[in-house]
Write a structure and sequence with these properties.
CATH architecture of the largest domain: 3-Layer(aba) Sandwich
Shape: elongated
Helix content: 40-55%
Oligomer: single chain
Radius of gyration: 24 Å
Strand order of the largest sheet: 3-2-1-4-5-6
CATH topology of the largest domain: Rossmann fold
Largest sheet: 6 strands, parallel
CATH superfamily of the largest domain: NAD(P)-binding Rossmann-like Domain
CATH class of the largest domain: Alpha Beta
Bound molecules: nicotinamide-adenine-dinucleotide
Number of strands: 14
Number of domains: 2
Length: 461
C-alpha cells in the first residue's frame, strides 16, 4: 500500500464499466489510490489522453479532475496486482462460441485466466471483487483457483455487480438506486465485504448499500436484466398486436403504466434492445436454467430474446412491404447507429442487424450518428462500397428514398423535416423505430410515416 493512501484499489478491465466506476470511486474517495489496468494498450493510452475511449456524458470532467492524483491507467497488470489490496475484476464475459453451451453459456476462459494471473502475481492476501456480470456460482470457481496456493495467501471473493446504464452512467454512479455487495457469510467474508461497503459509504447513503450472500448477489444482476429486457419484449410483442388491430401502443403503455404495480418506465415500443448485456445475460440464465433441468424456466426466459429478434425482423419486413416490396438500389438514410442515445457503443445494436438485412435486400445505406460512426464503420467493415457514413443528418438524408430512425437521439426530434423532405426521392418514407419524431407533422409535410405499434400515416392508397 502506498503511504499516503488508505488502500490501493485495482480494477482489471478498463471498459464501459471499469472506466466510469473506478473514476467515480477515485473522485469520491481521494484517500484511495485507484488504478485501472487493461490488456488493450490502445485503450489505456486513450484513457491517458484528451480523447477518452468511451463517450459518456459527464465522464470527461470526472476523469480529468482526478487523473494523475489518485486515478491511474496502466498496462502493467502484474505489478499493480502485487500492490493492490482490493482487486475489482471488470473484464468482458462474452457468450461462448464453441463446444458445450455455444451461443448461450458465458465464456469464462478470460475470467479464469484473470484469476490465475491474480494468484501468480500476488505475494499477499487480497480481496477480489466480481464487477462483471457472471453466472451464479462463478465466485466458487474463482475461490477454488485463488485459494489453491500453498503460500498461505487467502483470497475473499465478493460479488459487487454494476447496475449502471450506458448513456446515464455518471448519474447512475453518483446516485445509485442501490449498491449490492455479496460475500461468503464467514467472518473473513463479512469483514472483506465491510471493506467494500466502506468505499461506497463515502458518497452512497447506507440505506442504499445492500449486502447479501454471494450467490444472491451474482444472481440479482442477471435477474435485474431479465426484468428490464422482459418489459421491452412485452411492449414490443404488444406493438405487433397494435399494428394489426389499429390500437396505439403509446396509449396502451400509458394506460397500463399508470398502475403503480406496473410503472411507466421501460414501456417504449421500439426496434428492440441492444447493448452488450441483455441478450448475453438472458441467454446465460437460459443456459443455467437448462443445466439445472429447469426447461420450462429456460423456455420462458428464452422467449425474451426471441421476441427481440422478431421485432427487428418485423421492422425490416414492414419497410420492405411499405416500399413496394423492393429495396434493391434504393438509398436509405439511417438516423442513429448506437444501441441507445448518449453513447457511442454499438455492441448488439439493433441497427447492426437492420443495416445488414437492408444490405441483403440490396439497398444502399447512408448512416448518420453523432457519436457512433467509428464503431459503425467497424461493425459493417465488410459492406464497404454500399454504405456511406455522414455525420450531418441533412446531408445523410439527401437523395434518400427513406429514413429509418434507429436510435432515440434527442436531436432527431427537432430536425427540420421539411428541409429533409425537400431533398429526398418521392414518395418519401420515414420508419420511426423509436417513436420519437412528430409523426403527424411529418405526414403533413408529405412523408409516409411508419411508427412502431401505431397505425401508419400514409398518402399512398
Ligand atoms: N456495459 C454496460 O453497460 C454494463 C453494465 C453492467 C455490467 N456490465 C458487465 O460488466 C462487464 C464488463 O463490461 P464492459 O461493457 O465494461 O466491457 P468492455 O469490453 O467495455 O471492457 C472490458 C475490458 O476488459 C479488458 N480485458 C479483457 N480481458 C482482460 C484481461 N485478462 N486483463 C486485463 N484486461 C482485460 C478488455 O480489453 C476491455 O477493455 C461485463 O461482464 C458486462 O456484462 C456491463
Amino acid at each position: 500500500m502506498t503511504e499516503d493512501f488508505k488502500q490501493n484499489l485495482l480494477c482489471i478491465g478498463a471498459g464501459y464499466v471499469g472506466g466510469p466506476t473506478m473514476a467515480m470511486i477515485a473522485y469520491k474517495c481521494p484517500h484511495y489510490r485507484v488504478t485501472l489496468v487493461d490488456i488493450n494498450a490502445r485503450r489505456i493510452d486513450e484513457w491517458n489522453s484528451d480523447r477518452l475511449p468511451i463517450y459518456e456524458p459527464g465522464l470527461d470532467e470526472i476523469v480529468k479532475a482526478v487523473r494523475g492524483k489518485n486515478l491511474f491507467f496502466s498496462t502493467d497488470i502484474e505489478n499493480n496486482i502485487r500492490e493492490a489490496d482490493i482487486i475489482f475484476v471488470s473484464v468482458n464475459t462474452p457468450t461462448k462460441t464453441f463446444g458445450v453451451g455455444a451461443g448461450m453459456a458465458a465464456d469464462l476462459q478470460y475470467w479464469e485466466k484473470t484469476a490465475r494471473q491474480i494468484l501468480a502475481c500476488s505475494d499477499s492476501s487480497k480481496i477480489v471483487v466480481e464487477k462483471s456480470t457472471l453466472p451464479v456460482r462463478t465466485a466458487l470457481a474463482m475461490e477454488r483457483i485463488l485459494n489453491s496456493n500453498n503460500r498461505h495467501l487467502h483470497f475473499d471473493v465478493l460479488s459487487n455487480p454494476e447496475f449502471l446504464a450506458e448513456g446515464t452512467a455518471i448519474n447512475d454512479l453518483l446516485k445509485p438506486d442501490r449498491v449490492l455487495v455479496g460475500s461468503r457469510l464467514t467472518d473473513s467474508g463479512i469483514a472483506a465485504r465491510q471493506q467494500v461497503v466502506d468505499i461506497y459509504a463515502n458518497w452512497v447513503p447506507m440505506e442504499r448499500i445492500v449486502t447479501s450472500d454471494v450467490w444472491s448477489s451474482e444472481l440479482s444482476k442477471l435477474v435485474s436484466n431479465v426484468f428490464l429486457s422482459q418489459r421491452i419484449s412485452t411492449i414490443n410483442a404488444i406493438s405487433a398486436i397494435c399494428e394489426k388491430s389499429e390500437a396505439d401502443v403509446a396509449n396502451v403503455a400509458r394506460a397500463a403504466g399508470m398502475d403503480p404495480r406496473i410503472g411507466s418506465r421501460y414501456l417504449n415500443a421500439s426496434i428492440g434492445f441492444g447493448g452488450s448485456c441483455f441478450k448475453k445475460d438472458i441467454l446465460n440464465l437460459v443456459y443455467i436454467s437448462k443445466s439445472y433441468g429447469l426447461d420450462e424456466v429456460a423456455d420462458y426466459l428464452h422467449s425474451i430474446v426471441r421476441i427481440n429478434a422478431y421485432q427487428k425482423e418485423r421492422f425490416v419486413e414492414n419497410m420492405l412491404q411499405a416500399m413496394f416490396n423492393t429495396l434493391a438500389g434504393k438509398r436509405i438514410g439511417i438516423f442513429g447507429f448506437a444501441f441507445k442515445a448518449n453513447t457511442g457503443d454499438t455492441r448488439e445494436s439493433p441497427a447492426i442487424y437492420i443495416a445488414r438485412r437492408l444490405l441483403e435486400e440490396q439497398a444502399d445505406l447512408v448512416i448518420s450518428d453523432p457519436k457512433a460512426l467509428g464503431n459503425a464503420r467497424n461493425d459493417l467493415a465488410d459492406a464497404d462500397g454500399r454504405v456511406a457514413y455522414v455525420e450531418d443528418p441533412y446531408q445523410a438524408a439527401s437523395g434518400c428514398h427513406a429514413i429509418a430512425v434507429l436510435t432515440e437521439w434527442d436531436q432527431y426530434k427537432t430536425l427540420d423535416y421539411e428541409k429533409i423532405f425537400a431533398g429526398m426521392v418521392k414518395p418519401a418514407f420515414i420508419f420511426d423505430g423509436r417513436n420519437i419524431i412528430d409523426h403527424q407533422h411529418c405526414f403533413d409535410i408529405g412523408f409516409n410515416v411508419y411508427p412502431i405499434g401505431k397505425p401508419p400515416l400514409t398518402h399512398l392508397e
